[in-house]
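[step 3/7] inverse_fold.run input=structure_tokens len=379
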């Protein structure tokens, strides 16, 4: 029976079973870093020796820190010569805050490299070609679909030039987000609220509109035992009415207030202000807002605002994922709807989504949905 190294040599261009296992491990490492790497992708790497045993692992932890391949090579301590590097994203070929991973792998004496997703960033792409030119065997597209899921927020941002958008809300069984008197605490269970904070921790920014900060005076921090890097708090305030004692301005969590050019803001430093023109209706255009956040390094946004803000993103076709917590509670027609005006006059004009996951959390249902495309009347 051939050894792993012999079987590997005879299967050039294909991933061996132990290499697929290594890629799954690399994806686990990457998934654990989603939300903590800023404008960089969450990447994992596993190095295997000639017999398929794991020599080292590495993960990227954010701008200025070693890329996953370099972190793994440092851990390998010389045992990587003649080995295989399994990485979730094509090794970069770019000199930025750190050097090119392609060069590091070549100099380390790696014999074979497997990656899951080709790098769509034109500045960093080209690592696979450089590795091949150096005589290293390269196999791409290994568990690509799984890797696209782990990297989807970053990939969306790179491919579209704007952050990935998740709309999160809690609703009753009859689609109400608040009672007739405006009270909404607590529609969802404690378990759902803890899960929602985990969702916060996996995004770069949280976005709320003026209706939400007026009604709730939220902190938008991480609680319920959730640890991680607190996301940027983004508050829309076209008229400059956010009070200086707002809890959005508490503590050391970064905050960005979006307002009109020329609007005076009381007690808010200018470095915490993004000035953006509103449209004819006095609203910030969703795409212009997202592009401005992208320029500031934001690659994912969690929309936690009320029905007006959420509906603006839906109407613009700029919602990539919906996470709904549905509570077994009825509030009747007097309650506040979870969505605002969508311009829908008939069933055929309705926005249809695909359910991609359903989970029982506490007393609630957590439903995750995605649009195949924000087009009306599609089944």
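[step 3/7] decode complete -> sequence:
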């Amino acid at each position: 029976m051939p050894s792993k190294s012999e079987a590997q040599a005879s299967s050039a261009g294909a991933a061996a079973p132990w290499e697929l296992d290594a890629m799954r491990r690399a994806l686990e490492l990457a998934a654990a870093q989603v939300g903590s790497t800023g404008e960089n992708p969450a990447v994992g790497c596993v190095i295997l020796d000639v017999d398929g045993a794991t020599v080292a692992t590495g993960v990227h932890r954010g701008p200025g820190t070693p890329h996953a391949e370099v972190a793994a090579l440092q851990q390998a301590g010389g045992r990587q010569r003649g080995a295989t590097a399994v990485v979730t994203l094509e090794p970069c070929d770019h000199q930025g805050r750190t050097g090119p991973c392609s060069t590091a792998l070549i100099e380390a004496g790696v014999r074979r490299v497997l990656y899951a997703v080709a790098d769509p960033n034109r500045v960093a792409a080209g690592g696979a070609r450089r590795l091949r030119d150096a005589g290293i065997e390269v196999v791409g597209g290994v568990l690509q679909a799984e890797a696209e899921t782990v990297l989807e927020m970053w990939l969306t941002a790179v491919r579209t030039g704007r952050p990935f958008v998740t709309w999160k809300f809690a609703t009753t069984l009859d689609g109400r987000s608040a009672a007739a008197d405006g009270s909404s605490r607590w529609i969802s269970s404690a378990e759902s609220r803890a899960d929602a904070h985990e969702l916060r921790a996996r995004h770069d920014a949280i976005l709320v509109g003026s209706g939400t900060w007026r009604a709730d005076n939220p902190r938008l921090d991480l609680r319920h035992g959730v640890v991680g890097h607190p996301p940027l708090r983004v508050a829309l305030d076209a008229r400059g009415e956010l009070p200086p004692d707002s809890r959005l301005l508490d503590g050391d969590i970064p905050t960005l207030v979006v307002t009109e050019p020329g609007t005076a803001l009381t007690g808010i430093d200018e470095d915490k202000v993004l000035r953006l023109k509103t449209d004819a209706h006095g609203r910030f255009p969703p795409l212009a807002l997202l592009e401005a956040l992208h320029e500031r390094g934001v690659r994912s946004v969690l929309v936690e605002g009320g029905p007006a803000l959420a509906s603006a993103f839906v109407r613009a076709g700029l919602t990539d994922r919906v996470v709904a917590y549905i509570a077994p509670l009825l509030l009747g027609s007097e309650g506040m709807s979870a969505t605002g005006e969508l311009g829908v006059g008939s069933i055929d004009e309705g926005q249809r989504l695909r359910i991609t996951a359903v989970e029982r959390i506490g007393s609630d249902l957590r439903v995750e949905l995605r649009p195949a495309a924000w087009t009306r009347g599609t089944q």
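[step 4/7] annotate
The radius of gyration is 23 Å.
The first helix runs from residue 4 to 9.
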